[in-house]
Amino acid sequence: MSDPSLEDSRSSVHLKSTLARHDILLLLLVLIAAAFLRVPQLDRESLWGDEIVHARAAKMATPAEVIRNVQPPHSVGYPLLLHFWMKISSADLHLRALSALAGIASLGLVFMFVREFAGPRVGLFAVLLLALSASHLRFSREVAPYMPQTATLLAAGVVWLRALSTNSWRSWIGFALLAAGSHYLHPLASTTFVVWYTLTLVYCRVGIQTRDGGFQAPPKSFTLPRCLSSFVGFLLLISPQVMENLERASWYVGSAAAPLTFRMYRGEILRLFGGNWLEWTPWLWLLLTLLGLIVLPRISLFLTLAALGWCAGTVSVWVAFKTAQSHFFDYHYFISHLPAFAILAAFGLDQLVKWAPSKIERPVAAVLAVGISLGLAPSAWLEFGRDWPDYRSAGRFLKDHLRPADRYTIRREDNLDFMVNYYCPGVADREVDARFLLNPEAWNNMEREGGTLYAVTRFPPETTSELKLSSFNRVFVIWQDPQLYTEETFKELFGEGKSTRPGNENAMNLLEEARVYAKAKAWDQACDRIIHAASMAPHLHAILRVKAEILLDAGRFEEAAEAFEAARSRVPPRERWWMSASKAKALSQLKRPREALQELIRALDDPQPNVLYLNLQIGEAHLVLGELVEADHSFQAALKIDPRSAHALVRRGDVALAQGFPAIALGHYREAARIDGPDQEWAKTRLKEVERARNR
User: Fold this and answer.
1) Which of 101, 336, 581, 692 has the largest CB neighbor count within 10 A?
2) Is 468 within a domain?
3) Same domain flag for 408 and 348
4) Would you say 434 and 516 are in contact if contact means Cβ atoms under 8 Å apart?
């Protein structure tokens, strides 16, 4: 006969306690309040940058296309989930509803995670804190992976606790699957699962401290092999995504404008706690969290370690970004760690209640709950009422108003073109850039057809004489009759005189102006603007790259070579080979062929280079240096990649001719002349020249 008391001590740490009716009522009230903040008016604001990135990838026809279209540094899990969710509807409201539902579910899951360690009161406090968290609210109303990932992580935590108490294969397999699912949604909280798997070793030795002050011993059947098998399964499941993450991580490297310091980490933690909205909100969170951290070890050391390991994930995120020196570092990567802070803060709140006499604990708990609500609710309400530019209405305005003869242009400030174009895909063929005004033929054609040029900008024109304007909450659409366009109008529409605004927007404006002047071959003006833009935002690799290209086109080769070298350290790794190849062009113009050759060889070692192009250019560099054998080897290497490379065949003919083998040269020329393409005429010309020379 088994000992009943022993069986009681082995009862599940999950879901076994009976909730009082008033606890159920309070939980429902908090969840209803949370739903009130998360569900209404989900489509009030149009989608913005990252939301559109996810939506566009998810709209692909097949899962394989979705994976191919996920843009770095995003992971593939959320766009895939969104892809199937969009089978129902692709409306903005429906896209955001997925995050809203996940956000509400995460509240119930955090209650389930906490209540068996400390009772329903602490669970309710944790739910209340999360429900009124402005950060939790924000990402419950966005098309982003953070809330589905948070709910998945919490579900994994609940299943992990069940696995500890039952040691069933079903629970351990479920934990591995949910942990892997969380990683595929977003990888930056996966250190939490490593901590929880490690804590299983602690559980094997000491059990779990329960809310009544005792210990729940591991079941007699509990053995580590099941846990270890689950951990190995978790690692195997996430390994494809880990490899993908490591490849995508290259997009993070070296883009920070300044070294990432601990002060920046502290600032992002304050933002996580609501510092974006009200200054006192994060200090309230921190006070309760620190108090909980003091009292929790006396209640449950096991839960303390689980929560601390979870919270410490924020430090690992900061260390990762600090090591990479990436400008992507932001508090939204901490969202899935927020429940851990809420658990600690809930224990802090509970301790305040316990300091009151036992007879009035319940009224004190109610007063504290109301007080916390009043303290956090203003920041949550400010987040609920936030006001975003209306890209959707601007896009729909263009879609409704543009006639076939009309054209439109969008100033590329903070990806304005990307966001507006998402809502007007049917008129994409009519988009032009600022250089359109510098093309008299295109301009005259539009005017002859009676077309009008529309311009979209974030900033209203400083003077509105003869300009027609529609405003969509900080997005402006401007147009006028074609015959009235003047140089002053150009400045109004395209912001040539608006270069005093600080930050990246100003730098991007200057970049656009530089491109306009470069198109007109006004090199001095183009160079002045691009150099100014690069000095304002040296972390924006696009500006450094365009700066180098404009300097090269302007004939300022020494400066161009230096600029390409500077851009090489900033651009994504897969673009580095092109920076080296472009630098080699500048060096060739400076009559430094040996250095140009070394730069091209260097490019071959970069990630994802165009090996065919580089072998052709290396061969050309050897020819300039008179190294015929080495040149021939390079052109042969190019032909191994593309046997129909007419360029390589012509050059092999040139090498053979220079070595005194005209018959061999003719064979290469004839073969190249039979290949359609831009080099065919060149091959035919060389063939005729050699045949004519032989006939003499």
Assistant:
1) 336
2) yes
3) no
4) yes
Predicted confidence band of residue 3 (pLDDT cuts 50, 70, 90):
very low
Q: What share of the chain is helix, strand, coil (3-state, %, to 5)?
A: 70, 5, 25
The residue type found at 220 is: K
Residue 143: the pLDDT is: 93
Report the alpha-carbon distance of residue 574 to residue 567 in Å, rounded: 13
101 C-beta neighbours (distance < 10 Å), count: 17
Number of domains in the chain: 2
pLDDT digits (tens, 9 = 90+) for 435-457: 676 667 777 788 788 888 888 88
Average pLDDT over residues 233-243: 89
668, 643 contact by CB (below 8 A): no
**Reduced to 3 states, what is the DSSP secondary structure of residue 458?**
coil
| Residues 396 and 368 placed together within one structural domain of the fold | no
Handedness of CA 397, 401, 402, 407 (dihedral sign): negative
Strand order in the sheet with 407-410: 407-410, 453-457, 476-479, 468-471
Asked whether the beta carbons of 645 and 637 are under 8 A apart, the reply is: no
In a domain? residue 638: no
Average pLDDT over residues 351-358: 78
Residues 96, 121, single domain; the answer is yes
* Run of H or E including 410: strand 407-410
Residue among 205, 117, 226, 99 nearest 161 (CA): 117
Q: What is the 3-state secondary structure (H, E, C) of 167-226?
A: CCHHHHHHHHHHHHHHHHHCHHHCHHHHHHHHHHHHHHHHCEECCCCCEECCCCCCCHHH
CA separation, residue 162 to residues 12, 159, 170, 172, 267 (Å): 7, 5, 10, 9, 36
Mean local confidence (pLDDT), 60-88: 86
According to DSSP, residue 273 is labeled I
For 585, phi then psi, to 5°, come to: -60, -45
pLDDT exceeds cutoff 50 at 516: yes
Residues contacting residue 523 through CB under 8 Å, at least 6 positions apart: 517, 550, 553, 554, 555, 556
Structure confidence by residue, pLDDT tens digits, 135-154: 999 999 999 999 999 999 99
Are 268 and 401 in a shared domain? no
pLDDT tens digit string along 311-330? 888 888 888 887 776 667 78
* 188 and 46 fall within a common domain: yes
Higher pLDDT, 17 or 543: 543
